[in-house]
Amino acid sequence: MEEFVARFNNLARLIDQPSVLVDRRGTVVLASQGAFELLGHHIAGQSFDGFIRHPDFVAALQMALTQDQQTDLLYTRMEQVPRQFEIRLAPFDKNHVFIALIDKTLERSVERIQSEFVANVSHELRSPLTSLSGFIETLMGPAADDKQAQEKFFPIMQSEATRMQRLIDGLLSLSRFEAEAHRPPTDAVDLRAIIDEVVAIKSHMADGRNIQIAVTSEWEDATQTPLVRGDRDELLEVFHNLLENAVKYSNEGSDVVFALSQGRDLAGATQDDRIRVQVTNTGPTIASQHISRLTERFYRIDEGRSRSMGGSGLGLAIVKHILNRHRGRLRITSENQQTCVSVTLPTER
Ligand SMILES: Nc1ncnc2c1ncn2[C@@H]1O[C@H](COP(=O)(O)OP(=O)(O)O)[C@@H](O)[C@H]1O
Ligand SMILES: [Mg+2]
């Protein structure tokens, strides 16, 4: 008997997943610590199927007992967050079957995220591609000699091609930043200079909609601004994306403000080892249910509007990845038509 228990325990330890031993009727004879934790301490002496209620359990048990065959069953356990298990049954001896519950939740969610991602990318690429093919067909057929139509269509075709290009660039940066997520940056960079540069690059875009961009700072003498530990190009990308959004989603003729200050925690207390940049703009208030999702890839409140302005829905996802690598924080608030995106970064010491 002792040898019997030891054999089960050894196998359970080897498999390192919740494991159970049942007799010919499916009653639990032995269980590993993990199985007790998963299914409850009262499983001993009870019918295993009573806990999992799987339609194929009885058949699988019979297979293991009579045909000496291993069977796998898929099983979803309804907890607050449903978990997926693979139940593996294998013969133990003439009268007992060894059951292991292999947790597949993580694997399945990764699979789901991946297939969702591929579906999203395909959807995003298909629409500019469809429109391009349409124009090409028209220009080769009915509009072959129509100079006016050509003058009208070529710029649209160009902007569709640019949109695809931007989407691909965005996807490539995302995967690059993801790959680097665990390598913290080492350079000391001047955040104020980065912001001034981004503002200079973007001001023509803002002029077109009569939007003024201002930079304010707690450090009147710009050279006193604390340096941050970071990667210059990546931080340029962060503030470029934030400024682009602020201008794009602003009311015509309003102001966009960059404010630099010492870091603050959630309660408002200053943190002298952090620096904060707030980008504020005036535009439609973002409803709270959207805010927490804005950094998801392809998440856009108004897909049509974002797309017509050349957006791919990847900007904030890229921002979040870069900030993670920088041990930075991102916080978005929006009320009374004021949207504020706040970035906090550790200063260099
Ligand atoms: N300053 C802002 N004001 C209002 N909405 C914003 C602002 N910044 C971002 N958003 C919303 O967040 C969405 C995602 O932003 P982003 O990832 O940069 O994608 P994109 O700009 O390409 O649409 C935008 O489509 C928009 O709906
Ligand atoms: Mg954007």
Tell me about this structure.
The protein has 349 residues and is α+β, with helices and mostly antiparallel strands. It has three domains: 2-103, 2-Layer Sandwich (Beta-Lactamase), CATH 3.30.450.20; 119-179, Helix Hairpins, CATH 1.10.287; 184-349, 2-Layer Sandwich (Heat Shock Protein 90), CATH 3.30.565.10. Helices cover 46% and strands 24% of the residues. The protein contains eleven helices and twelve strands. The chain has helices at 2-15, 33-39, 49-52, 57-66, 105-140, 147-179, 191-207, 232-248, 288-291, 303-308, 315-325; strands at residues 19-22, 28-31, 71-77, 83-93, 96-103, 188-189, 212-217, 228-229, 255-264, 270-282, 329-335, 338-346. The strands form three sheets. It has a five-stranded antiparallel sheet. Helix 5 runs antiparallel to helix 6. The longest helix is centred in the middle third of the chain and has 36 residues, at 105-140. The radius of gyration is 29 Å and the shape is extended. It starts with a helix and ends with a strand. The relative contact order is 0.08. The model has no long low-confidence stretch (mean pLDDT 90). The structure holds adenosine-5'-diphosphate and magnesium ion.
